[in-house]
UniProtKB/TrEMBL annotation:
Protein name: PTS EIIC type-2 domain-containing protein
InterPro entries: Bacterial_PTS_Sugar_Transport (IPR050864), PTS_EIIC_2 (IPR013014)
Protein's cellular compartments: Cell membrane
Xref: PANTHER family: FRUCTOSE-LIKE PERMEASE, FRUCTOSE-LIKE PTS SYSTEM EIIBC COMPONENT-RELATED
Domain PTS EIIC type-2: 13-380
Assigned keywords, A-Z: Cell membrane, Membrane, Phosphotransferase system, Sugar transport, Transmembrane, Transmembrane helix, Transport
Membrane topology designation: Multi-pass membrane protein
Keyword Magnesium listed: no
Species of provenance: Clostridium oceanicum
Length: 389
């Protein structure tokens, strides 16, 4: 394949990925808002925030069954709304795979995309696994239609036999024994790495820096998921780790928004709307809205968001803040002092602000360099990607 063809194929893959994102982002935005509403109802109803985690997650499995939903009472309306939001996050890989494949081959890619997306979900691939599964399905379907199509009355055999065999069976085998296995192994190694630091109290600040960097590195992807699951996994015995996640996660939205205010000419209408929407979502600890920015210019986004998350989490560890409730920076403000003393909220805000300011400075410097290289034309977002928010 020539160099031009490789470049052309990569551009097609990026457009397909952005198409998947345009379907997925409303899913996570709506889910995040519902989670926040459920949390808010819980708080204003006078229930004990110190048992919030047990209340919301204790019967989680039951809510995902027929009997679980049938037994819900009005007294548990907060938990119902919370889990309606959570269910949106459970199907992110399926959405990404199906609509990435759809952008490549149309309707024939949707059903196989959902199936391979489910495999990606079960293997912990999150949206990254969904994107790759969508690419695999799309190009296998295209190959099948081009090389194995039958004519006349046998055309339906292609749709109902050849495409499922190639896209689902062959695609599933490819994903399981290559990408899926790789992502799973990486996630297992990262979890073991975090566990090794967590078991040494003297490495508390280092653990915070690493978790803060991880949780914002891929804006809701598998690396961040490792940090989130690790924090929640030890929440019953140690309140520190989930604290690091919850102060770091919203930093990305604040960095993007402040950088936009400083360098507005670097954003076109699509980029501006992406930043604003993502800022709102990050208020509710939903970061996936920033993915178009990450995929567009990772060399700008990654250094700034990782720095912001790592610094904020590291400072929270330095001040020994133990967040009693699993809520993001903004929503946790009324509860930070609980169990931490009267100065905790000051330290909480200071930790967040320092991280965001450093991240914004890095983002702005790198963005202005890119803007100069781009002859003053907007950097975010490239409308040729087809990304629609």
């Amino acid at each position: 394949m020539s160099e031009f063809s490789i470049k052309d194929t990569w551009e097609e893959m990026k457009r397909a990925m952005y198409n998947g994102l345009s379907y997925m982002i409303p899913l996570v935005a709506g889910g995040g808002i519902l989670i926040a509403i459920g949390t808010f109802i819980y708080a204003i109803s006078g229930k004990d925030m110190l048992v919030f985690n047990d209340y919301m997650y204790k019967a989680a499995g039951g809510y995902l069954t027929k009997d679980g939903f049938m037994n819900i009472t009005f007294a548990e309306l907060d938990r119902l709304i919370f889990w309606l939001g959570k269910m949106g996050f459970y199907i992110i890989p399926e959405f990404m795979a199906a609509f990435t494949a759809y952008a490549l081959v149309g309707k024939p890619g949707v059903a196989p995309g959902f199936i391979l997306g489910t495999m990606a979900n079960k293997m912990g691939g999150n949206f990254l696994g969904g994107i790759i599964a969508g690419w695999i399905v799309g190009y296998l379907v295209r190959f099948t239609v081009k090389k194995m199509s039958l004519k006349g009355g046998l055309r339906t055999v292609t749709s109902f036999v050849f495409i499922p065999i190639m896209a689902i069976l062959v695609g599933g085998l490819i994903y399981r024994f290559s990408v899926g296995l790789l992502i799973t192994n990486i996630m297992d190694m990262l979890t073991a790495f975090l566990t090794s630091m967590h078991n040494v109290p003297g490495k508390r600040i280092l653990l915070a820096v690493v978790m803060g960097a991880m949780v914002v590195s891929d804006l809701g992807g598998p690396i961040g998921k490792v940090s989130v699951l690790f924090g929640l996994g030890v929440i019953g015995t140690d309140l520190y780790p989930h604290t690091f996640n919850h102060i770091a996660i919203p930093t990305s939205g604040a960095v993007f928004f402040l950088a936009y205010l400083i360098t507005k000419k670097a954003f076109n209408a699509t980029g501006r709307q992406t930043v604003i929407n993502n800022g709102i979502n990050c208020f509710f600890t939903v970061t996936e809205g920033g993915l178009p920015l990450l995929f567009q210019k990772p060399q700008i986004v990654l250094p700034s968001t990782i720095s912001a998350g790592a610094i904020s989490a590291g400072l929270a560890a330095y001040f020994q803040i133990k967040l009693q409730v699993p809520l993001g920076f903004w929503l946790a403000l009324p509860f930070v002092n609980v169990g931490n003393g009267s100065m905790a909220i000051v330290h909480w805000i200071l930790s967040f602000a320092v991280g965001v300011l450093v991240g914004t400075a890095i983002f702005t410097i790198l963005l202005r360099r890119e803007l100069k290289k781009n002859d003053g034309k907007p950097v975010f977002l490239d409308d040729s990607t087809g990304m629609i928010i």
